[in-house]
TrEMBL record:
It comes from Duganella radicis. One of its GO terms (molecular function) is hydrolase activity. GO terms for biological process: carbohydrate metabolic process. The keyword Hydrolase applies. This is Gylcosyl hydrolase 115 C-terminal domain-containing protein. The keyword ATP-binding does not apply. InterPro entries: GH115, GH115_C, GH115_sf, Hex-like_dom2. Residues 1-25 form the signal peptide.
Amino acid sequence: MNPVQAFIRTTAAGALLALYAGAHAAALPLKTADGAPTVLAEEQETVQVAADLLRRDLGAVVGAPARPVRRLEDCARVCFVLGRHDSVLMADVARRAGVDLSWLRGQWERYERAVLPLPGAPDKHMVLIAGADARGTAYGVIDVTRELGISAWEWWADVAPPARPDAALATERLRARAPSVRYRGIFLNDEDWGLQPWAARHDPSGDIGPATYARIFELMLRLKANLVWPAMHDSTTPFYQIDGNAEVAKKYGIVVGTSHAEPMMRNNVREWVRGQRGDFNFFTNRKALVDYWGERVAQVKGYENVYSVGIRGVHDSAMEGATSLRQARDAVGDAIGVQRQLLASAHGQDPAHVPQALTLYKEVLDIYRAGLQVPDDITLLWPDDNYGYLHQLSTPAEARRGGGTGLYYHLSYWGRPHDYLWLGTTNPELVRDQLQRAVATGARKMWVANVGDIKPLEYLTQYFLDCAFDADLLNAPAQDHLRRWVAQQFGAAAAGDIAAVLRDYYELAWERRPEFMGFSQVESITPVRQSDYLGSGGEEAERRLQRYQALAERARALGASLPASLREAYFQLVLYPVQSSAHLNLRILKLDLAAQYAREGRQAASLYARQAAAAQQAISRDTAEYNAMAQGKWAGMMDAAPRKLPVFEAPLFPAYGRSSRDDCTLAYPGALSSQGDSLNFTAGVAGLRTLTVVRRGASAQTWSVAAAPAGIGTEVSGGTLDAGNGFEQRVAVRYDGKGAVDGLVLRCGEAMLKAAITLAPAPVAGLPGEQERIVALPAATGAATKGWGAAPGLGSYGNSMRADLDLPSRPLAQASAAPVLSYAFSSTSSGEAQLVFVALPVHPLTSENQVRVAYRLDDGPMQLLDFATRGRSDEWKRNVLSNTAVRSVRLDELPPGAHRLQVFALDPGFVLDRIEVRFDGAPNYYGKPL
């Protein structure tokens, strides 16, 4: 088995293929003396789309055109035969070949693939792909193209198909399992800054029309998605107002639905004209609304749709006219009843047989919780809180609904407390965690992801949809899928290194997304302010900048090593998001540091201000390059400042004057905390701190390490302070945990500068102790009993602990019987302290659960911690912007010595990131302790 075939069997496509005969059969060469394979396909339009795609991909791989044929007798030496199992073509071929396809009757999107001698021509082979339906046939084709190494992003990210004239197809006889989720889709949203401007330049309709949707639907076929919620902002002509849109969806086998704010396939933003129809008010203008809905139902009844039911405001707002929650509940129930009557009349059947969904988004979830009675056949869609945390999921009773349940999930968002529309930065491990919750609670009827403009959310979109098609992928960390995905785009050789770059990219954004780095909010819009990364001096900001700089350098080096044919794809999928994140962080943090260093009289202020300005220019340069790639193919697609929010605005870049002093000094990392002007280590514990040699004058000066005790080492031993480095040098100082610390002396010109080093008392042997008056306990370092499990890739230390999803909720009185995490630690300080629990801001798993743990410190009493938030409170806003939920407990006295802390899981799905024991005077870091 070649590497491509091995890859396909470890992705969603491969995992869904169940081998039942011909194990390890020989591969079938695709290019023969006759040239490329031929393709025989039934006339059904979706099958014909799949046949065209297959011919295109075969031609790209084997280097010769794959032609269509209309009869078996016209087949080349290798011939693909495609069709629904009960089509005239497939029934005849199956009869002549002696293949029983009856098992496909009544199945959903499944297929059988078999390599057989061509009837009547034993020296030829046919690759039979028989689908239970048209999409099943198309997915059989997609699995072939994936096996040949064709990326789903072949067109959408310019991933060049691999030329492999010797390509061969595995000959195992395969039966595909059914998709894990019946309806798997994307919501094209907030398209104002990418997809719509791009389509306005490239689509003959001048908008998101049939040509654009054909490309989108081809991508969806390649991703095995079957449902779309079309673009619906007022910048875009509504889907059904452009001739051909509905027809192209039918051609590609795509089911059309509409978003939570668009009942009955209506785009209210552009289609409800108040001057003609009146207020969008079900209480005062009922007939106009019913007529409006009825018009669209009659128009689209011949297509495959999932109808959104219920009623909200015109554009993502609460329903008009309701003065109480009870009145809103009763009106929504009444509206659903009217809508079902319209469906029954138009379709001529019981509405229970017409797919419908109610998305419990924003106030609709409150209405549902208030007792809304929803007919059993309607699918309930559970929403996240717009930031990737599902509000609630199905109880056992809800999971048993005839219409089932599903989810609506944001990978991109416009709204409070802040947008993230520019770059795809949601951590895939969070997506995994949340989708695992959906599977565990039976929410498997429909999954829809808000993917914004599609680009640059390519990977996140594919991961979401791959997991929807094959939920078994959720059994392994998302990083496993990421590495295989990278291999499919760029080859196996560089896959590990590129995947590592992307993991670091997601990890840095986990702590703070680039769009959130202004520490501002929207609706109403607030100005940017100084970053919280400077809350304890500049060291936390400096380290974040170092990580981003190193990440961008690695990304550039890897891109330069790729073949030229893959570099534009790499720029879109990896380099642009990595560099843009780095540059925005650099612009913001360098400018804040410049202001601080100027106040300290440091010449580096001017250098940092210039570097901040260069970073802003780099964002503009990279964005222009993105829009110019592929000879202008992507012109208009990338906007680096969606909604022109304050975080994106180019600030004033000040010019700082020279210092009046002309001496050298040392700057310490804890200048704004009680740690003060010294390097702080703990006896017996190896550590690393950063010291900065600062030249206040404007002329170059040499520096060197003049003396260092046995226990102290520096990563650089000398250099020159000049304009190129801002007349200062950061020096990493390492303590080995054994030797002495006093006596580190640096020479700057003729001046001898002795470094102040503080050594805190040693902790109890073998136990975590204090660093900078903080004891840090990463969640995964605790001893866990059954009921707690690792959540790899999540949290500030890259590995959190989650309470199992099948745990029962318990009251505090039963906490001692709950699963427990145990931590032993040592403190050397005494007096008042804070016990800080940092969790992920998850919500209760279902309406029957909460988000609670209990803890016990040493032999103290059992104490309850409840992490629930209410609505869009200020606490919830802080939580989602930082991916943390924090509970702090004041300890009046914590004596020095060994301690034990236990954390008990009272509810399923709680995720613990870390615990900190913080003594008065500890640095106030934004993220985890340094």
